[in-house]
Amino acid sequence: MGDEAISERVVEELQRRILNGQIPVGSWLRHSTIAEEFGVSRTPVREALRVLHAQGIVTIVRNRGARVNGHSGRDVRELGEVRAALEGLAAELAVERINDAQIRQMEKALEDFAAALEKYAGNPELALSAEANQRWSETNRDFHSAILAGSGNHHLVLSIEDVGRRLPLNSSYPVYAGNSRLLKQNLEEHQRIATAIREHDADGAREAMVAHIRSASESLARYVEETERRR
Amino acid sequence: MGDEAISERVVEELQRRILNGQIPVGSWLRHSTIAEEFGVSRTPVREALRVLHAQGIVTIVRNRGARVNGHSGRDVRELGEVRAALEGLAAELAVERINDAQIRQMEKALEDFAAALEKYAGNPELALSAEANQRWSETNRDFHSAILAGSGNHHLVLSIEDVGRRLPLNSSYPVYAGNSRLLKQNLEEHQRIATAIREHDADGAREAMVAHIRSASESLARYVEETERRR
DNA sequence: TGGATCACTTCTGGATCCCATCTGCGGGGA
DNA sequence: TCCCCGCAGATGGGATCCAGAAGTGATCCA
């Protein structure tokens, strides 16, 4: 227990905070500040920042420090294309390899999503709440991770995680929040993917997944371009 | 000039040596040895090893050090599937986005490969030489990187590089070396991809590329399984 | 003689120290 | 008054120092 190196813990915590926006894009990460907060020396912090740099999460400027990378609309589209290809592969492979437990997890995520949609449908206030965001993200994650696990390809999971780290996915929630049209579309796309998997249609599953991820990332790209135009 | 951090240089050099087999799989990387060789202190070396760990190239065992990761046949197949999906996407995108210079680079790589095949065809000795290996790998790299550049997706390039780092590709040369059947097949697959791109057939290009990478990685997987059975 | 134990060696992980470089500010000169 | 230069503080990069963990081998006891 506790056999994890300090630098690893720092990496994970910083990843988390950057991903969920707690540490905003463009901010500088200072050795001393982070070291102090974690109650450690600067050495493991430096190692952590080098790792984040290698992962493309921050940029290290010599003698200046590490700064959190932002993402243009173009970045979002490019990452969307990559993620679509990878998740499309996952869906295609899952058709052959997914097991019953994973199928059930997938079905459950669908039901939960539908139930949440029902609940928040005619309730704009609730739909914008943090609780609602939590549910969208959780059911969404469960659905995708069931298929990912069903692909039986561990390196594929690693690659998708890698892409995910480069793109703060959580910045996608405000895109959906309160937009019942997009939420409904999301559900329909999920159902289309699930149906193809149930029916053992590998090409169909892949194509449905690719279309799904591309449309989602297109929405996100537009959102990003919109918000960056406003400042 | 020389504005690159020492740890970055160490990372790149170690990547290179591990990729080309100069540092064998399973060997331990010791701080002091590497530090001494590079004429630096252990600090940047430690940072470099953390980065290699994050990239999945080495495993860090607490209080023991870093060891170069090996690859089972299964790993090779999984990575092959991932790479096939990514390069397939590159081919698909290249159909729409590739420019004339990149087309010419692609054609030139094809011609060079064919010329090399011709030259070494009836000459088993030359075909096994380091010079021959050099030419196979170079023309192969040129062909794929032309298409990659033609995809116009920088994040895609990054992801493929990431997969490539996890799998010492150069270990694939001995698979081809002197095997004119595989080399010829390789050339034919490349030509099929190039034709689809020329004819603006996105699906065809993707499928040809996926088939190409999968068959190549299947050969590599068999080779790996064969050699690991021998010890 | 075989096996367990304990001291020694080696090496990593984290902390501290030192130095180079960059930024911001204030004073002096045009 | 404005610009430029230089100095001081802040910050990061690299080296060194120290403590603790794991392997190794010798020694002692059954």
UniProtKB/TrEMBL annotation, chains A, B:
HTH gntR-type domain spans which residues?
Answer: 4-71
InterPro entries named in the record: GntR_C, TF_FadR/GntR_C, Tscrpt_reg_HTH_GntR, WH-like_DNA-bd_sf, WH_DNA-bd_sf
Per its UniProt record, what SUPFAM superfamilies does this chain match?
A: GntR ligand-binding domain-like, Winged helix' DNA-binding domain
Any idea which UniProt keywords this protein has? DNA-binding, Transcription, Transcription regulation
Mind telling me which Gene3D superfamilies this protein's record contains? GntR ligand-binding domain-like, Winged helix-like DNA-binding domain superfamily/Winged helix DNA-binding domain
Q: Which residues form a coiled coil?
A: none
What is this protein's name?
Transcriptional regulator, GntR family
Q: Looking at the keywords, is RNA-binding present? A: no
Gene Ontology molecular-function annotations: DNA binding; DNA-binding transcription factor activity
> What SMART domains would the database entry show?
FCD (SM00895), HTH_GNTR (SM00345)
